[in-house]
Structure formats: structure tokens, C-alpha cells
Amino acid sequence: MRDDWKRHLIDVGAEFEGDLLRDFGNAERERRVAVNGDVICDLSHRGLLEVRGKDAQSFLQGQFGNDIREVSETRSQLSSFSSPKGRAYAVFRVMLDRDAYLLEMNPEPVETVRKRLAMFVMRAEVVIENAEDSRIRFGLSGPTAEQQLADTLGAFPKEVNDVLSRKGVSVVRVQHMVHPRFEFAGEIDACRSLWNDLNVHSAPVGPEGWRLLDILAGVPTIYPETSETFVPQMVNLHALNGISFKKGCYPGQEVVARMHYLGKLKRRMFRLAIEGQERPLPGSPVYRASGEPGQPDGEIVDAVMHPDGLYAALAVVQIAASEEPLRWSSPDGSAAHVIPLPYTIPGSA
């Protein structure tokens, strides 16, 4: 995290462990207000790659699962980068900032994605760099989020994935469960000013609050424990407009297309509410209660404590198994209840 932005966050009450923002003094209260109220959240904990150069668009078009040609200064998208076997290394948001494509994702896969993309550059005029400190990033969520942006910026993006630039800040509307959510990126002076304006009516929360909102919105995150585990459809990218089935070839395209056109998807991502005191870690097993030890029916994608006392989780589970009682960790482990997602899964799944 940049020192100047860290000093700003400390001035407004942030508490750190080393260079990582932990919370703003009351993690339990922050969870409650994140679900029900208006919140702002620093997003410096997320990784960011910048891809630029004359051939950047054509290069990325041949690597990612979505159609990069649809990304513009007014439109972002979710996408993925996969192995030749169609298993995702990372899921990320793609934005266009002037002449550079920005890929925002979980920080752990950043270096893996950068190195693997660099392998395919060949003679293309493309530069791929870690850019996490190049722009200040934070988010806004809540029942009055739209009105706050209308008051401070004069406008807000109307549709999910839309991007709007105002007063030196790019604003993108992202997936949500109930209340609208927006993410911002820009230079420090513009972001500091906007943060201070929004801080009047919104409570600052730590990164766990935004992670919880991602889970409730059904947005997947890939961790090292789940890298090369899931085909993009398994984490519902087809339901989030994160896959193009009409573009040309890219790594893993045959697997993704076969699963789409032949209806072979047997596992997909569900939202779960998990009982118990131990946090389910990414990659840990999910079983049907009637299952056998050592033969899991699914894996945890992500999980965070919900203010209701249960863990809000996303998990890729056998579709057939989801109709039975589920357990986390073992067939007789903590109960895992299926909760509806805030979007529709396409019928082909």
C-alpha cells in the first residue's frame, strides 16, 4: 500500500497489521453495517495488473475467456485466464484506463498471471506490469450509494459493469445482492477528496466487509488453493456475463465450449450458510450428509463470517448433491445450507 494513502486511512481511523489494513476498530459492527448500511472500503488489498501497448487488445483477446473488444472507457467486464485444460488461474475485472487495460483480482494469482501472460507475448508490442500502487482504489455500497454519487459526482453508472469518469476518478458499478455497489480508481488527491465526501454518510469498513459483499453477490475469487481447479462455468461466470462463446480461440476454449454446447456441466457454484466456529478455507471439502469420507461433492471457493453468526460461503458443488443436506469438512461435519444467489443461472447449465 502506498504510504500517502496509508497515512490518509490512519487519519480516518484505520487499524493496520503491518502493511495490511485490518479494520476500523470494530470488525463485528463493520460486518453488520456492510450488509445493511452504507459503507466505504479501501481496496488496496486487491492485486492489479496493467497491460498496455499497441497490440494489447489483440493479445488479451487471444488469452482471456471474455471478449476484450467489448471493454471500453464506459464498459468493464468480468473475465478469466485459464490453463489449456480450461481451469482458471484467476478471475478478474477488466477495465480500460486511457490506453491501458487494468486487471483487478485477488493478489495471490497476480504474479502467476503476469508470468504466464508474458510467455505468450512473443513479438507483440505489449507491456505487462504489476500496478497495485499506480492507482488508489476503494468501494462504496449501500441503500443511498446512488444518491451519494449523484450529490458528489453529479452522476453514477446505471448498469452493472458500466464505467463513468468524473472529477479524476473512474467509477464502475459491480455486482450486488441488494444494495448498489461501486468501485473507484484514480489519483490520490481525487480519491482522498471523494472518500472524505462519502465518509460523511458512509461508515468505513475493513477488507473483510467487501469480501463478504462479494460472496453475497455471488462473485467468485480464485485463491492458490483453488487455482486450476474450476472451469469458468463452474464458478458461474456464464451467469455473470464473464464468458464469451462467440469469440475466437484462447487457452482452454475447447473445454469451455464443449461444456456449454454439450451441456456437460455437472458442478456449479452455490452460496452456502455454514454453521460452526471454524472458518471454511478455500479448497476445503463439502460433502452430502449421506456421502463417504474422502469422496467430497464440492469445494469451498471463499467464506467469511456473516453478522448472523454463520459463515457466508461460495462453493462449487455437484448439482445433484445440492438437492441433499450438505456438510462442510466431512459427511458428519458442520451443516451447510444452500442460499439462493442474486442472479439466474442460464438454463444450459
Summarize, please.
The chain has 349 residues and is of the alpha+beta class.
Structure description:
It is a single chain. Helix content is 21%, strand content 30%. The chain has 349 residues and is of the alpha+beta class. It folds into two domains: 1-219, Probable tRNA modification gtpase trme, domain 1 (Gyrase A, domain 2, 2-Layer Sandwich); 224-339, Beta Barrel (Elongation Factor Tu (Ef-tu), domain 3). It has a six-stranded mixed beta sheet with strand order 10-11-12-9-3-13, sandwiched between helices. A six-stranded antiparallel β-barrel has the order 14-17-16-15-18-19. Helix 2 packs parallel to helix 7 (207-217). The radius of gyration is 20 Å and the shape is globular. 48% of the residues are buried. The mean pLDDT is 95.
